[in-house]
Structure formats: C-alpha cells, structure tokens
C-alpha cells in the first residue's frame, strides 16, 4: 500500500542540527538554529511565565475544550498587543497554534474567499511561507526583497514588483525582524508601501513572529498599526513563541480587519469555520499562561522588562561581533550586523566559506549564510569573529 511513498528530504536546518549534535568538538558553536538562547546557551524560562504557571497550578481544574476561537481574554490581549487600543470592534481575532497555525488558518480562510488570488512572499523568506500557502492551494510567487550589495531592503525593486501585481493578490510581509535577512523597511518605506497597496488594491498578510525583538513592542508593530489606521484591510499572524519563549506550547493569534463590526463578525465566523476543519479548537495551557501575564499589571511589567533584556542582549552581541570583526579586518563591511534587526543576519558569506567555518572551526551556519545571533553567547563572540576572519582572508 505504501510502497510509492518517497522519503521526506528533511529540513536542511534540522539535518544540520543533527550533524552539530554528533560533532565531538567541545568548542563547537551552533548559529544555525531559530530560537533565542540566553548567555548560558539555554532557552530561557521567563520569570513572568514561571510566575503565571505557579498561579495556574494553584487551582487544579478540569480540562474542557476551549471555544474554536480560543480564550476570550487571550484574544483581547493579543489584539491590543498588535494593534494598540481602539478599533477592536472591527478586528476579528482568534487564538492559534503558534504563528504557523495563524498562517495556516489565514491561508485556508483566504483560499475559501479569494480563490483566484495569488500569494507573493519576499525573496528570500521563511521557507514555510511557501509550504503553508502552497499547501492551502495557492500559487506562490516571490517579490524582490533583499539587496546583497547594501545588506538592506531592495526597496525600489520591491515596490516596482508590487506595483505590477493584479488587484486582489495577497502579499506576505514581515512586520519586523525579517527572517532570514534581518533587513527591515523604515517607517517612511512602510508609508510608501501602504500607498502602493491602496493604489493596487492588494491584500497584505503581515507575519509578526518577533514583536519586541527589534526596537520594542510598539515600534515593531508600526507597519501593522499604520496600515490599519489607513483603513487598509489586512491579516496578521502573530506568534508568542519567541517573545514569551513558549515555543512548544504553540501560542499565536490570527487577526483580520474588517471595515466595520458587522464585517468583522462575519469574518470571525469564517475563521472559526477554518479552525473547525483543521483542529477544532486550540490547546488551552499556553493560552492561559499568556492571558494571565498580559492581564496582570505586575506580571506584564515583568514580562516587558525581560523582553527588553533579551532585545538588548541581541543588540550587544551584534555590536560586540561587529567591533571584533572590524578590528581584525578593517576593510570588511560588517555594518549590517548593527543595522539589521532581530535574531538573524545575512552574512553574505559564500557556501565554500560557510563549509570551512563548519569543518575547520566548528561554527555552524546554514548554507544560505543566515546567522542566528540570538544563539551566540558573549563567550562565543571572539572565537566566531576569529573563525570568520580566517575563512574570509
Ligand atoms: N513566521 C516567521 C517569520 C518565523 O520565523 C516563524 C518561526 N520561527 C514563524 C512564523 C512560526 O512561528 P511559530 O513557531 O509560532 O509557529
């Protein structure tokens, strides 16, 4: 029966991680992963999360299903975190299984109601964008995004490509901390992009998986809030995996803005229908933890302070690595490390040098050249800088 089934090629990042685990060198450094590690090289347990868990554990309760849309308090808090105060009545929000679940339910919703649309993602993007939208039945294309020459956004090329799209097409946008490049649009560029989206009647689907990792909770949501203020209809997939370090509990949210409360209600109903056909209702535990933190003034302040510390640490690692590389190779262009945002940067190192980093120095990067700076400890900066300089010279 199953003879025709082909082997799963695997995920190149996971395969590399297996290779890293099997590497006997004691001084090996893994910068290929997509999680935030603290300076002790562990996924942190945030104090606010632990405190909420202790609180929840004090009353042991039965485990009923959550509603299809998830916990009301979680939905309310999630909407406010992304959109700020106000406009709530015209936004349909549901709790989802991480950012991935939000993208999947959003993609199914869109396929049901915009069957002719095509989906456009940045070149490059998080690989699973193609998997999820393709899996929902969409034809997925790319728009230019990254300029290796400037290590920044190829904004003119991006706008030109989006201007040429037919009305009603869907564009996936990283709201902040672009994965994999770390290159983000400036506020001025977001404003210009909003004009093109309005002129061309495009439907933006924002992915915000790193809110608070770039410049701050409010700053990182700038594009979404600005587009919403311009009354541009939009979708948002938000994730708590990184900013609550709650990866395995699968916490995220999907938001869709309607023109008014009536439209939002209809959308809300259809989102529930999409949930029902996928997994019926979301898991409860992580949702309760997050709602507890966000609803409680003290826990929320603690979470924000811890998130700030994570952001500051990533920026410090970026500038320490920059300083050491610049000192050892003054002619090298490493400014991008300080300008790019979030966990990742695109090093632009050719594949041969990335292999040499791994084979000769035990420093693991994925072959696209993406480096996860959030996985680098302060003790790792000097050996990584030395290794990079050696493979470059
Ligand atoms: N979008 C982007 C851009 C991501 O990088 C990720 C995961 N790292 C996700 C979505 C998925 O998030 P989650 O793990 O919450 O499903």
From TrEMBL:
Please give the cofactor(s) recorded in the UniProt entry for this protein.
pyridoxal 5'-phosphate
Give the signal peptide as a residue range, or say none if absent: none
Q: Which intervals hold domain Aminotransferase class I/classII large?
A: 27-387
Keyword presence, Transferase: yes
Could you state one GO cellular component term attached to this entry?
cytosol
* UniProt keyword terms in alphabetical order: Aminotransferase, Pyridoxal phosphate, Transferase
* MF (Gene Ontology): identical protein binding; L-tyrosine-2-oxoglutarate transaminase activity; pyridoxal phosphate binding
Q: Name one GO biological process term.
A: L-phenylalanine biosynthetic process from chorismate via phenylpyruvate
Supply the PANTHER family for this chain.
Answer: AROMATIC-AMINO-ACID AMINOTRANSFERASE, ASPARTATE AMINOTRANSFERASE
Record-stated family: Belongs to the class-I pyridoxal-phosphate-dependent aminotransferase family.
Q: How does it assemble?
A: Homodimer.
Q: What is this protein called?
A: Aminotransferase class I/II-fold pyridoxal phosphate-dependent enzyme
What organism does the UniProt record list as the source?
Duganella flavida
């Amino acid at each position: 029966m199953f003879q025709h089934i082909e082997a799963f090629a695997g995920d190149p990042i996971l395969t590399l991680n297996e290779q890293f685990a099997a590497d006997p060198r004691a001084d090996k450094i893994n910068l290929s992963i997509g999680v935030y590690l603290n300076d002790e090289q562990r996924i942190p347990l945030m104090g606010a999360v632990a405190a909420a868990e202790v609180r929840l554990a004090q009353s042991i309760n039965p485990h009923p299903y959550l509603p299809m849309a998830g916990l009301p308090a979680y939905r309310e808090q999630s909407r406010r975190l992304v959109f700020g105060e106000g406009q709530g009545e015209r936004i349909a929000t549901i709790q989802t299984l991480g950012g991935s679940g939000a993208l999947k339910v959003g993609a199914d919703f869109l396929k049901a109601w915009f069957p002719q649309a095509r989906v456009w993602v940045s070149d490059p993007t998080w690989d699973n964008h193609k998997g999820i939208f393709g899996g929902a039945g969409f034809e997925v294309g790319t728009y230019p995004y990254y300029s290796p020459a400037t290590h920044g956004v190829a904004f003119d090329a991006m706008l030109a490509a989006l201007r040429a799209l037919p009305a009603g097409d869907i564009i996936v946008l990283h709201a902040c901390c672009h994965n994999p490049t770390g290159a983000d649009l400036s506020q001025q560029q977001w404003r210009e992009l909003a004009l093109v989206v309005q002129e061309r009647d495009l439907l933006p689907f924002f992915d915000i998986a790193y809110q608070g990792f770039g410049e701050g909770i409010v700053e990182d949501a700038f594009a979404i809030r600005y587009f919403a203020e311009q009354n541009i209809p939009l979708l948002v997939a938000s994730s708590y995996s990184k900013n609550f370090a709650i990866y395995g509990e699968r916490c995220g949210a999907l938001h869709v803005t309607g023109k008014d409360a009536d439209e939002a209600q209809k959308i809300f109903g259809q989102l529930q229908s999409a949930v029902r056909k996928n997994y019926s209702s979301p898991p409860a535990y992580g949702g309760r933890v997050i709602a507890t933190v966000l609803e409680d003034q003290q826990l929320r302040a603690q979470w924000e302070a811890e998130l700030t510390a994570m952001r500051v640490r990533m920026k410090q690692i970026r500038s320490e690595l920059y300083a050491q590389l610049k000192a050892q190779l003054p002619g090298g262009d490493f400014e991008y490390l300080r300008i790019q945002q979030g966990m990742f940067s695109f090093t632009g190192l050719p594949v041969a040098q990335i292999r040499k980093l791994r084979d000769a120095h035990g420093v693991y990067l994925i072959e696209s050249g993406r480096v996860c700076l959030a996985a680098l400890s302060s003790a790792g900066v000097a050996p990584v800088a030395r290794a990079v300089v050696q493979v470059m010279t």
